[in-house]
Amino acid sequence: MAPLAPGDDGPPPGADASSEEGAPAPRGRLEGKIALVTGGGTGIGRAIALLFASEGARVVVAGRRSEPLSQVVHEIRNHGGTATFCRGDVSKPDRVELMVQGAIFNFGGLDILVNNAGIFAEGTVVDTDEKRWDKILGTNLKGAYLVSRQAVPAMKARGGGSIINNASVHGMVGMKNGAAYCASKGGLVQLTRAMALDHAADRIRVNAICPGLIDTPMTRDADGGTKWLDQEVGRYPIARSGAVEEVARLALFLASEDSSWVTGAVLPIDGGFAAA
Ligand code: NDP
């Protein structure tokens, strides 16, 4: 299957990549791999799911709402890829078990996990009540722990794998009025390092990506919406927000053999924000 960018209509009907002087069709970088992308129905997770599928992976997308998930699955299938979805909340252990079992049942195992599901809410420690704190930490940090706990044995059974934790540049540097979010993402960065050490011998690589401002439903829905987005852009050395496809390409690098000696890395993708 040829690499597709979201919105790309792909090769014309009847086009055959292998027909040119008998040359074999180019193989995708994730050919034969099975990937689970949490929060795969929208934003960054959607872009990762589409790119991974276009590189040959069979993909399970997971999240709480069916509609965006089924749309992504349709999009992947319409482009000749293979995907299914599993509805569930990453902070609920029984649902998480179904996500990983879904990959095993449908496709025969699991090689790549992207812990991407996440939520944002503003607040200092004073005005973040316990319910909100637990929800943010439960999704962004405990969710990654719960899915990884199921995924590691499945990857071990396949002889290795790659786990990519979608943290945030605010897991590396603080932000005002985002106490719970920063705590959750900082925790995810350290979880990445600890897991990289624990599972290196199992040939499971664990890395974190730390996006800066990316134009997604999460940032568009933030207080102030697109006006806030425009203001934030002024704080970035490369003075624009990032695109979901740019983050997906970094995730692809970490998922593929191109990064075979990279583990425990915490990689900003932030237009230079964390360099300041
Ligand atoms: P989106 O809101 O588009 O994506 C978040 C996804 O997570 C949604 O698909 C949502 O689906 C899913 N999700 C949320 N809570 C849960 C849950 N409890 N269980 C399962 N799925 C859940 O925003 P982004 O694409 O921007 O965010 C993706 C990740 O990227 C997040 O972890 C975010 O923190 C991180 N990030 C984003 C940045 C940005 O600027 N946009 C910057 C840095 C990091 P549903 O609601 O259906 O469950």
Write the layout of secondary structure elements.
Blueprint: E1 34-38, H1 43-54, E2 58-63, H2 66-78, E3 82-87, H3 93-107, E4 112-115, H4 130-157, E5 161-166, H5 179-199, E6 204-211, H6 217-220, H7 225-233, H8 244-255, E7 266-269
Parallel strand pairs: 1-2, 1-4, 2-3, 4-5, 5-6, 6-7
Helix pairs in contact: 1-2, 1-8, 3-4, 4-5
This protein binds NADPH dihydro-nicotinamide-adenine-dinucleotide phosphate (NDP).
Number of strands: 7
Strand line-up in the sheet with most strands: 3-2-1-4-5-6-7
Series of secondary-structure elements, N-terminal to C-terminal? EHEHEHEHEHEHHHE
Bound small molecules, by name, code or SMILES, are: NADPH dihydro-nicotinamide-adenine-dinucleotide phosphate
How many DSSP helices?
Answer: 8
Rg (CA only): 18 Å
Pick out the low-confidence regions.
Answer: 1-20
Please state roughly what percent of the residues sit in beta strands, choosing from under 5%, 5-15%, 15-25%, 25-35%, 35-45% or over 45%: 5-15%
Backbone structural class: alpha/beta
Labels describing this entry:
276 residues, seven-stranded parallel beta sheet, 7 strands, binds NADPH dihydro-nicotinamide-adenine-dinucleotide phosphate, alpha/beta
What does this structure look like?
The protein has about 280 residues and is of the alpha/beta class. The chain is about 40% helix and about 15% strand. Strands 3-2-1-4-5-6-7 form a seven-stranded parallel sheet, with helices on both faces. Helix 4 packs parallel to helix 5. The longest helix has 28 residues, at about 130-155.
